[in-house]
Amino acid sequence: MVASRKPTTMTKITGAQAVISSLEHEGVDLMFGIPGGAILPAYDPLYSSPIRHILARHEQGAGHMAAGYAWATGRVGVCMATSGPGATNLVTPLADALMDSVPMVAITGQVPTHAVGNDAFQEAYTTGITMPVTKHNYFVTDPDEISTVMHEAFHLASSGRPGPVLIDLPKDVLQQQTEWRPPEDLDLPGYRPTMDGHPRRVKEAVEMLAQSHRPVLYVGGGIIKSEASAALTRFAEISNIPVVTTLMGRGALPDDHPLCLGMPGMHGNYTAITSMQKCDVLAAVGVRFDDRVTGDPQHFAVGATVIHADIDPAEIGKVRRPDIPIVADARRVLEQFIAAWGDRPPVDNRDWLDTLSGWQRKHPLSYDQHQDGPIKPQFIIEELCRLTGGDAILVAGVGQHQMWASQLWKFDRPRRWINSGGLGTMGFAVPAAIGAKAGMPDELVYAVDGDGCFQMTFQELIAASAFRIPVKVVVFNNGAHGMVKQWQKMFYGRRFSSSLLNPEVVDYVKLVEGMGCIGLRAERPEEVEPTLEKSLSIDDRPVVVEMVVDPEEMVFPMVPAGGSNDQVILGPEPGDRG
Amino acid sequence: MTAISSLPRHTLSLIVENRPGVLARVSSTLARRGFNIHSLAVGPTIDPGLSRITVVVESDKIEQVTKQLHKLINIIKIFELDPSEAVERETMLIRIAATGNSRTQAIEVANIFKANVVDVGINTLTFGITSRPAKLNDLIELLRPFGVVELVKSGRIAIGRDAKSKPSRMRAVG
C-alpha cells in the first residue's frame, strides 16, 4: 500500500485514496464519521491524511456534527459512514440538512458492485433511500469518476440553495486502481442557479417599498447562507424599514438594532407577528413562508402586497403567490435593492414605527422568576446571555427550550445561532454543538437542550471528551417532553399520554461524569448564576449543567398550529399553570 | 384503475441526462410532492447523452410540479405541451372476444380507426393502433360491447407543433 503522499497527475492510486485526496483538494480539514466494513478502504488513507476525523458514537451524531460545523463556519460539513445501517443512520441528519439548506457532503460505503442487489450483509439501497432527503446523490461505479463526482458534490452542496449531497461508493470501487486527476471543469447543464434578480422586478420592488407606509422586511436563513447581513442592515437603514428575523434567520440583523422586531411565527413575539399581519408591503428575502411563520396562510398578511426574493424558484408561489417574484441570491438582491434605492429618502413610516414600538411596550416577552420558586427556563437563557455577554455560539435542540432560547437570547450577528428549524430534529443540539466547537475552537459554544432531546443523543459527549472538544451543555430538566406536554395541556384535556420522562430515574451529574464530562446541577434560582459561572470557567473538557426547571412553564406567545396569526395567545389560561 | 382524478392533466416533456436513476428521481419527486402521474414514457433522443421523459401529470399546481422537477440536477429542460399546440400519440393493444359474425363487425370498426389486427385467436381478436389519446378512447368505447379481454396502453408521447412549444414558464419567474 502506498502511503498517502500528495498525488500528482497520473499517479496510480486506489479509489479510496482518490476520495481522501479529493477531500483534501476541496480544502476539508475536519470530518465526522464511523468506519465499518464497506467503507474501511477509505479509512486507511485517512489514517495518514492531515484531515482530522472525529469518531462519532452514532452515525446520526456524525451527520449532525457535520451540520453544526457547516452552520458555524459556513463551509461544507463532511461526514462518512459505512453501508447499510451506517447509511440509514444518516437519513435523519440528511433530511434535517435538506430542510434547513445546510451544505453537507456525506460519503457512504456500499457492498461490492457484484453483490449489489443481492441482499448482501449490510446492504441497503442508500441512493434510493436518500434520494428524497438530499439535494443530489451519486452511486459511483468507476473509480476514474471519483474526483469529478467529489468536486461536483462540493459545488452542489455549497452553491445555489445549499443542501446535503451523498456519494455512495462500493467497496470494490474504493479498492480498484485509478489515476489521480484533478477534477475536471464542472459539467452540470441542468444546474444553473440564478444569482441576480431581474432588474425590472428589483425596480418594481423598490418603488413599491418606497411608496409604502407600513412596510416590513421578512428575512430568514437565506440571509445567513448568502452572508447578506451587511447588505440587509444597510438596506433596512437607508429605507428605515423594520425587520423580522425568522427562527432560521436569527442574528441576520442584530437584536439590539432599533429596526429589529425579533422572531415572528408560532412562538414569535406579538410585535413581530402582528407587524406582518398589519403591514401594507411585505418584502420577504431568503425565506419560504413556512407554516410555523404564517399560521393559516389564508389569514396571513391578508392586506399586504408581497415581494418575495429567494434563490429557489420553487419556493416562490409555493405557499403565497407574490405580487413581485424575484429569483435571486439574498445578498445580491439586497445589494440590488440598495443600488436601486439610490438617494431616495427613507420611507415615510413614522406612524408605523410608533405603532410598532407601542406594541413592543404593551406586549413584551415576559415571565415571572420568583425568588423562592422553581427556576424559570427563560431566566437561565437571560442569565447565560448576560454572563457570556452574548459572545457565544448558541445551539439548541427542538422544543420549548429552543423557543425560549430563540426568543430571549440577544443575537448580535449571523452564525451565532444553530438549531434544527425545518425538520425539528430532537437530539440535534449535542452533536451539532460538538461540530460547531470542533470547527470554531476559539469560540465559546453552549448547547441548550431539553431533557427529552438530551436523552436522544447524549452519547456523543463521549466523542467530545475523547477528542477534547470542550462544549458546554445546559440541560433544561422539566421531566417531560415539554412541548408535547404543553399541547396536551392546551388541546388534549391535560391527558399526559407518554410525555413524562420519569426524571427520578436519571442522575445527570453521574451520567455525564461517566462520559468524561464535568457535571453540574442547579435546582434553585440563586444557584443559576454561580453554576453557569462555574461552567464558564472550565475549558479543558465538556461540561453539562443540569438545570431543574419549572415543569409547568409554557412557551408564549403562541399561535396554535393552523390558526390565524391574528389570534395570538399571549399567556396561559388560569388553569394551565400547575 | 379506480378513482378517476378530476384534476387537470398536463403533458410535460423533460430533457434529462441519460444516467441511471433519473427516472426514479422524477417519479420520486412527483410522488413526494403528492402529484399524480397519469402516464409516463421514456426513451432515447437523437443525442445519446440525453433522454426524453414524457409525463402526463394530474395537478392543479402545475407550476409547482415543474419547479420541483427543475430542482433535479439531471433535468436539463422542461416543456409543457399544450395539447392544442402539440401532436400527442399513444399506442394501444386491445384484445376482444370475437367469434363468427362479431369478428367481421369488430374488424369493420377497427378499420375505420385504422387499427390493425395483430393477433388472431380462436375466440379473440387483437388490434394494434397508434393514434391520438382521444381516438383510442373512442375505439375502446366502440369495442367494449364485444367484451374487452385485455388492454395494454403505452405512456403518452408528444412533440410540439413546429416551433410553437416553449420552455415552461418557470424559467421566466423573476
Describe this structure in words.
The complex is a heterodimer of chains A (578) and B (174). With 578 residues, chain A is an alpha/beta fold. Chain A is globular and about 70 Å long. The N and C termini of chain A lie far apart (67 Å). With 174 residues, chain B is of the alpha+beta class. Chain B has 4 helices and 9 strands, in the order βαββαββαββαββ. The radius of gyration of chain B is 19 Å and the shape is elongated.
What's this entry about, in short?
Chain A has 578 residues and is α/β, with parallel strands linked by helices. Chain A is built from 23 helices and 20 strands. Chain B is of the alpha+beta class and 174 residues long.
Search tags:
heterodimer, A: 578 residues, alpha/beta, six-stranded parallel sheet, 23 helices, 20 strands, 36% helix, globular, B: 174 residues, alpha+beta, four-stranded antiparallel sheet, disordered C terminus
Largest contact between chains? A-B, 26 and 23 residues
Count, helices of chain B: 4
Count of discrete alpha- or pi-helical segments spanning 4 or more residues of chain A: 23
Q: What does the average pLDDT of chain B come to?
A: 90
Number of strands of chain A: 20
Draw up the topology in text:
The complex is a heterodimer of chains A (578) and B (174).
Chain A: E1 12-14, H1 15-25, E2 30-33, H2 40-46, E3 52-55, H3 59-73, E4 77-81, H4 85-88, H5 91-99, E5 104-110, H6 126-130, E6 136-139, H7 146-158, E7 164-170, H8 171-175, E8 177-179, H9 199-210, E9 215-219, H10 221-225, H11 229-239, E10 243-245, E11 260-262, H12 270-278, E12 281-285, H13 291-294, E13 305-310, E14 324-327, H14 330-341, H15 350-362, H16 377-388, E15 393-396, H17 400-408, E16 417-418, H18 429-439, E17 445-450, H19 451-457, H20 460-466, E18 472-477, H21 482-491, H22 508-513, E19 518-522, H23 525-537, E20 543-548
Helix pairs in contact in A: 1-2, 1-7, 3-5, 3-18, 9-14, 11-14, 16-17, 16-23
Chain B: E1 9-17, H1 22-32, E2 36-44, E3 50-58, H2 62-70, E4 75-81, E5 86-97, H3 101-112, E6 116-120, E7 124-131, H4 133-143, E8 148-153, E9 157-160
Antiparallel strand pairs in B: 1-3, 1-4, 2-3, 5-7, 5-8, 5-9, 6-7
